[in-house]
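User: Hello! I'm new to structural biology and keep hearing that structure can be predicted from sequence alone. Could you demonstrate with Ribonuclease P protein component? Please show me the input and the output so I can see what each looks like.

Assistant: Of course. The first part below is the input, the amino acid sequence of Ribonuclease P protein component. The second part is the output, the predicted structure written as tokens.
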Amino acid sequence: MLPPENRLRRRQDFATAVKRGRRAGRPLLVVHLRRADEQQVPVGGYSDSHPHVAEETSSARAGFVVSKAVGPAVVRTLVKRRLRHLVRERLARLPAGSLIVVRALPPAGSASYLELAQDLDAALKRLLRTDPASSGGGSGR
């Protein structure tokens, strides 16, 4: 399980990571990463009340999306547990204050732990090796 300070809970945090973060797609999952140095904080602070402001700037936080397309409840739970464990081991690599969302794709339901780990490592490697300043117009959505 992830420690409480490393969990994404708010819908707005998920949306920020997905819409404004960088994305790396793999056959089993898609990883969205919003680095802390890319985030713009309004001059007056946050527009909504946020009880955990200190957490956002201190440690990386992770969230997971595993839809019904992945499989029945037992399979989805297994995939979520595997992903949580894998991300927990890799949180130290992420910049402080970053938001990461890992979205499992349907083939993740039949993937092994090792296959999930390989896809997650490849996605994180791609997201962390690139310079955030160079992501201005080359994403091609």
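User: So the tokens describe the shape?

Assistant: Right, they're a compact way of writing down the 3D structure. Reading them back into a model, for example: Confidence is low (pLDDT under 50) at residues 42-56, 135-141.
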